[in-house]
Amino acid sequence: MKKEPNSIQVIERLARLLDAIAAQKEDASLKVLSAETGLHPSTAFRILASLAEEGFVERTSRGNYRLGMKLMQLGNRVGAGTDFRKIALPLMEKLRDQLDETVNLTVREGDEVVYVERSLAKRMIRVEQVIGSRAPLHVTAVGKLMLGEMGEEACRGYAKRSKLPQYTVNTRKTVAALLQDCTASAKRGYAYDDQEAEMGVGCIGALIRDASGQVIAGLSVSAPIERRRDEWTALVMQASEEISRQLGYHASFSTHHHKGNT
Amino acid sequence: MKKEPNSIQVIERLARLLDAIAAQKEDASLKVLSAETGLHPSTAFRILASLAEEGFVERTSRGNYRLGMKLMQLGNRVGAGTDFRKIALPLMEKLRDQLDETVNLTVREGDEVVYVERSLAKRMIRVEQVIGSRAPLHVTAVGKLMLGEMGEEACRGYAKRSKLPQYTVNTRKTVAALLQDCTASAKRGYAYDDQEAEMGVGCIGALIRDASGQVIAGLSVSAPIERRRDEWTALVMQASEEISRQLGYHASFSTHHHKGNT
DNA sequence: CAATCGTTTTCATAATATGAAAAAAGAACC
DNA sequence: GGTTCTTTTTTCATATTATGAAAACGATTG
């Protein structure tokens, strides 16, 4: 049992409880939650009661617990860039309608991308990513573009840190292979994910920039690999460019400018 | 300063902090947050650090605070009925596309409706409700349907409890007026909101039922009052019926059955 | 180079959250 | 319908935990 140095006990426990509730399919009973989190029943009870008072959890008629509306409320205000999600959504829906495949919007967070918005395909069989879920940079189209954008050195650094965990047989194995893919992708302005994160799933991604030219997000289509078409590339890029444009980005910033931080 | 009996101090404080962050337009500094919440800076700092560790908040490059991805993650799992939101969304989008006006999905929570999903009109001028926000039952189309559904007695009870706060000059003032509106609406199966919540905004709403015949949510279109058309009623009802159908509801349950609780 | 402002760490202290145990409230089982 | 389970809730003494004052640090500004 490790102990993070600075951390308020109750907060760490409350987080465990919320996760435990989220993990349950239906409502969760105190019994289950205290077992799941390893907390003493009366402790769990008290924390849950407090969470309920603040609206973080709710009690069902049976006295069970579920996540509360407050979380929805706060969750929808996440990302100072609430604005760019709003701007992107209609264009994501348009792209989704053109291709009839799921379109995702992701942002970078450390060495991962996080799914922040999506437009689901209206089909029975479709790719579906949970909002808030994560994936390492090197197994997604958008992530590889971001790596390419950062330049070779940063890319090597990432490879070293992450050890390039292998998600499928197609996941880039060597630094060389990754570098080559990322650089080429960044140069082209779009990237593929050929079943590198999950077998059977293929993506096409492009980057989104704000008025200062900074990359702030990535747009991608995800489809069962056998349905994916190369022709989509143009549409994905059009969509991402349109979003960037609406965010104030002017393409005039040179063809491709490798960043320089500090 | 009132003191709720059972409540863990840290949790109440953490809630205040999260609210304070959410209230800020951009990132918030420690200074601002501790001022806003009345917490001692070092206390606020420690709580925020813990929240950051769990991913509830994030720190910007400048060291400021913003809401974290974890909230998005949890927020998207709210409502055991995550499923019905998913089912409703495509049909909401379809309706939105037909009318080119904002479509909202709401659930009842106590004496209020909470906005849980939406499909925004793709127009410059549109009605826009924040997900997670609330409104009292008697000032919304869906809320009035829910009141009507519960029967006269429950409706009077609501009026007594809530005192029918007046949002605009059009808000139902008397119990009699409310009752008449709710009963008639429930009988018809749809309701209007004629600038009763906000001047200039008009809605048309209908209810959504699950397999057991229970009302689980409401669907509504919101538009600037001068754009709203009576003809939309049929489309709104079609959409809500289709959602109910997909949730397993069979209309065969009599024309209108006033519930019996207990 | 000071000086000011905001953030972070340290630390002794008291208040706070804790868990054991007892009490209530429901279920389940004759 | 009564009895015995289980599960939830309350109570309470205790020690652990979060607290806020103050000091250290760091950045920004004059």
CATH superfamily of the largest domain in chain A: GAF domain
Specify the helix fraction band of chain A: 40-55%
Strand content of chain A: 15-25%
What gap, in angstroms, lies between the N and C termini of chain A? 38 Å
User: Number of DSSP helices of chain A?
Assistant: 9
E-strand count of chain A: 8
Summing up helix and strand content along with how strands pair, one would put the structural category of chain A as alpha+beta
Interface with most residues: A-B, 50 and 51 residues
**What's the architecture of the largest domain in chain A in CATH terms?**
2-Layer Sandwich
Show unreliable segments of chain A: 254-262
Oligomeric composition of the shown chains: homodimer
- Whole-angstrom Rg of chain A: 21 Å
Provide the domain count of chain A.
Answer: 2
How is the largest sheet of chain A built, in terms of strand order? 5-4-3-8-7-6
Biggest β-sheet description of chain A: 6 strands, antiparallel
CATH fold description of the largest domain in chain A: Beta-Lactamase
Name the helix and strand elements of chain A from N-terminus to C-terminus, one letter apiece.
HHHEEHHEEEHHHEEEH
**CATH class group of the largest domain in chain A:** Alpha Beta
